[in-house]
C-alpha cells in the first residue's frame, strides 16, 4: 500500500524535488496533501498532476481562487487555508510521511504538530531545531516520531553514522560509538574569493546566484553569508546529540563531499554525490531502503579536484555569530534566527547593504544572548520580540 505524503512547502525547491522523486515511485508513495504560500499557479499544476486529497494555502482569497480553478479542471482536491490547516494536514490520521520544507519560522508549528502525532518527519526546515531544539527533540522522543534529515549535509552525516545509532542519533552517545568529530562541509558561497572591500556593493541578484545549488532566495543569501552553515551547525548539535566542540565547519567549494564523520581510530567516512537534493530526499523517503532518484551518477573523472579550507571569520561573520549563539543556548539561537530572517528580507528588498545583515544579527545576539526560552510560548514570544528589535534597528542603518 502506498505511503501517504504531506509536503509542507510544495512549491519551493525542496517540495518540487520531492514530487519529482515521488513521481518515479507511484507504487510506493501517494501525495495526500500539498501546502504552499503564494505560488498558486504552481500549486494548481501540482494538484492536477498528483491529485492530492487536500491542498492548503495561507490566504482565504487564494484558497477560493484555487478551489474554483481546480473545480473547473475536474479536480476533487479540497482546498483549505490558514496556518492551522497546514498543522492539521501534517498531523492528519491518514498522513504517514511529512516533508517539512517550509522555509523559516513559519514551518515550526506544523512540523512540531506532525512530531506530536508520531509521524515520519523528513526535516528540511532547519529553523525547527534552531528555534526550539531541546523542545523539538524531546517531543520526538516522547511521541516516538521518526526524524530523518533532508539538508544534504545532515543527511550525509546521518549516512556516515554507524547503522546501529542512525534511527536514534538525536539521543545517542557519539563518543561511545567511536565518533571523534562531525565535519560539516560548505561551499563558501558565491563570494568565497570576492575582495572584502567589495562586500558593501554586493547586490541581491549577485547574492542569490549560488555556484552549485539551486535554492530559494532567502536560503541563497544565507549561503552567501554562511549563516546557512551556521544554522546547520546549530541543527547538527541537536540532530546528533553533540556539543559545539564536536562540530567543525570545512569549506569545500566543489560541493561533492556533502559532509563527513571522523572516527576515533583515525578513519573518516564521507558521503559524496552530485549536488542535487533529490539524493537525500530519496534516501529519507525510502529509509532504510534505497530507491532511484534520477540524479546523475557521480563521475570521478569529471571532478577536477577536492579542496578544503577553514572559514575566515572576517569573510563570514554570520557563521561565527551562529556558533556563538549555539554555545549560549536556545534563547540566543531563537533570537538570531528571527533577526536573520528580518535582515535578509530587508537586504532582498534593497533596504540595507549585504554587510548590514551581519551587523543586525550581531546586535540581536548581543541583546538576547542571555535569554532563556524553554516552552513553546517562550520561544514564539522571543521570536517576535527579536523581530521587532531587528526591524527597529533597520532604521539606524543606511541603505
Secondary structure elements and pairings:
Elements: E1 3-8, H1 13-23, E2 29-35, H2 40-50, E3 54-57, H3 60-72, E4 78-81, H4 83-90, E5 97-100, H5 108-116, E6 120-123, H6 127-143, E7 146-149, H7 152-160, H8 163-166, E8 179-186, H9 204-207, H10 217-225, H11 227-239, E9 247-251, E10 257-263, E11 268-272, H12 278-286, H13 317-328, H14 330-348, H15 354-368, H16 376-394
Parallel strand pairs: 1-2, 1-5, 2-3, 3-4, 5-6, 6-7, 8-9
Antiparallel strand pairs: 8-10, 10-11
Q: Largest sheet at a glance?
A: 7 strands, parallel
| Structural class based on helices, strands and sheet pairing | alpha/beta
Tally of helical runs? 16
Q: Indicate the radius of gyration in whole angstroms.
A: 20 Å
Give me the count of strands: 11
What is the chain-wise order of helices and strands? EHEHEHEHEHEHEHHEHHHEEEHHHHH
Structural notes for this entry:
The protein is α/β, with parallel strands linked by helices and 399 residues long. Helices cover 46% and strands 15% of the residues. The chain has helices spanning 13-23, 40-50, 60-72, 83-90, 108-116, 127-143, 152-160, 163-166, 204-207, 217-225, 227-239, 278-286, 317-328, 330-348, 354-368, 376-394, and strands spanning 3-8, 29-35, 54-57, 78-81, 97-100, 120-123, 146-149, 179-186, 247-251, 257-263, 268-272. The strands form two sheets. The chain has a seven-stranded parallel β-sheet, with helices on both faces. The model has no long low-confidence stretch (mean pLDDT 94).
Amino acid at each position: 500500500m502506498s505511503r501517504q505524503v504531506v509536503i509542507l512547502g510544495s512549491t519551493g525547491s525542496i517540495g518540487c524535488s520531492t514530487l519529482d522523486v515521488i513521481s518515479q515511485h507511484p507504487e510506493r508513495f501517494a501525495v495526500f496533501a500539498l501546502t504552499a504560500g503564494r505560488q498558486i499557479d504552481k500549486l494548481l499544476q501540482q494538484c492536477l498532476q498528483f491529485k492530492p486529497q487536500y491542498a492548503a494555502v495561507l490566504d482565504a482569497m487564494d484558497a477560493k481562487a484555487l478551489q474554483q480553478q481546480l473545480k473547473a479542471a475536474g479536480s476533487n482536491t479540497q482546498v483549505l487555508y490558514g496556518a492551522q490547516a497546514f498543522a492539521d494536514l501534517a498531523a492528519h490520521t491518514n498522513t504517514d510521511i511529512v516533508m517539512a520544507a517550509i522555509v523559516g519560522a513559519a514551518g515550526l508549528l506544523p512540523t512540531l504538530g506532525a512530531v506530536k502525532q508520531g509521524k515520519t518527519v523528513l526535516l528540511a526546515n532547519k529553523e525547527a531545531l534552531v528555534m526550539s531544539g531541546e523542545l523539538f527533540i524531546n517531543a520526538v522522543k516522547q511521541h516516538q516520531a521518526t526524524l530523518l534529515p533532508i539538508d544534504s549535509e545532515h543527511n550525509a552525516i546521518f549516512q556516515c553514522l554507524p547503522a546501529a545509532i542512525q534511527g536514534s542519533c538525536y539521543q545517542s552517545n557519539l563518543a561511545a560509538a567511536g565518533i571523534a568529530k562531525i565535519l560539516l562541509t560548505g561551499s563558501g558561497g558565491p563570494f568565497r574569493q570576492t575582495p572584502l572591500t567589495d562586500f558593501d556593493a554586493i547586490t541581491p541578484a549577485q547574492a542569490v546566484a549560488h555556484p552549485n545549488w539551486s535554492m530559494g532566495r532567502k536560503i541563497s543569501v544565507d549561503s552567501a553569508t554562511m549563516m546557512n552553515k551556521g544554522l546547520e551547525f546549530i541543527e547538527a548539535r541537536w540532530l546528533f546529540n553533540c556539543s559545539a566542540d564536536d562540530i567543525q565547519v570545512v569549506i569545500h567549494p566543489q560541493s561533492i563531499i556533502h559532509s563527513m564523520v571522523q572516527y576515533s581510530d583515525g578513519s573518516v567516512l564521507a558521503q559524496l554525490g552530485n549536488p542535487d537534493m533529490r539524493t537525500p530526499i530519496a534516501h529519507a523517503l525510502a529509509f532504510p531502503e534505497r530507491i532511484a532518484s534520477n540524479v546523475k551518477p557521480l563521475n570521478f573523472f569529471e571532478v577536477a579536484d577536492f579542496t578544503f579550507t577553514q572559514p575566515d571569520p572576517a569573510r563570514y561573520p554570520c557563521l561565527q555569530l551562529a556558533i556563538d549563539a549555539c554555545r549560549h543556548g536556545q534563547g540566543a539561537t531563537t533570537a538570531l534566527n528571527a533577526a536573520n530572517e528580518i535582515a535578509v528580507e530587508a537586504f532582498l528588498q534593497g533596504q540595507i547593504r549585504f554587510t548590514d545583515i551581519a551587523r543586525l544579527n550581531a546586535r540581536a545576539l548581543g541583546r538576547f544572548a542571555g535569554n532563556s526560552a524553554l516552552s513553546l510560548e517562550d520561544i514564539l514570544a522571543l521570536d517576535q520580540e527579536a523581530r521587532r528589535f531587528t526591524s527597529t534597528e533597520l532604521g539606524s542603518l543606511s541603505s
